[in-house]
Structure prediction request, 221 residues.
Amino acid sequence: MDEPADHYQPVPAPDYQVPVELARSRAQGFADVMASRRTIRDFSPTPIPPGVIQAAIQAASSAPSGANIQPWRFVVVTDPERKRAMREGAEAEEREFYERSGARDWHAALAPLGTDSSKPFLEIAPAIIAVFELHKGPNSPRPYYAKESVGIAVRILLAALHLAGLATLTHTPSPMRFLNQILDRPAEERPFVLIPVGYAAPAATVPAITRKPLREVLIWS
Prediction:
């Protein structure tokens, strides 16, 4: 049900302040930590410490959202059979994608990264977080700016997991509706992204990519 317009009563804003002399160092420290994050495709089966994923999802759930609808669902999958079914469904969609002639430009862009239709990480990573975008349904209100809201929440989730020392990957086979059936999710929940979570395998490698320099992405106006 939609909440009435006067549902939220004003309360004092949180009193969170950072001393001026620490502001830049904190921001730079976070930037430096996040600069070390890389997409990992080779995972170790080493278990994730208890409570880490829950805390990271709690952080993600603090994200702003249109009209405060909070249109996200985080389904944490650890069951081997479900992970295997997710891999099979994802690889079927990926094979179709890589064989599609109309996506040649996208294929060319992916080629330097060495990706293909094989997705073993969906079985090997100890946990897969399936993020769903919540739309209007029998027990959910209409969302506003759903994709933007869920995207912000996912970015916070990735940062929280990285700060905990965990490796992640964002995987978006298209279409992803097979996930609703595998994970028993209602139709109003639309798959947004799959995030394998765990530790990088000892022999894991990543492509030697670089980031654009700040002068190319920062504009003062």
Summary: The first helix runs from residue 20 to 35. The two ends are 42 Å apart (CA to CA). The chain has a mean pLDDT of 93.
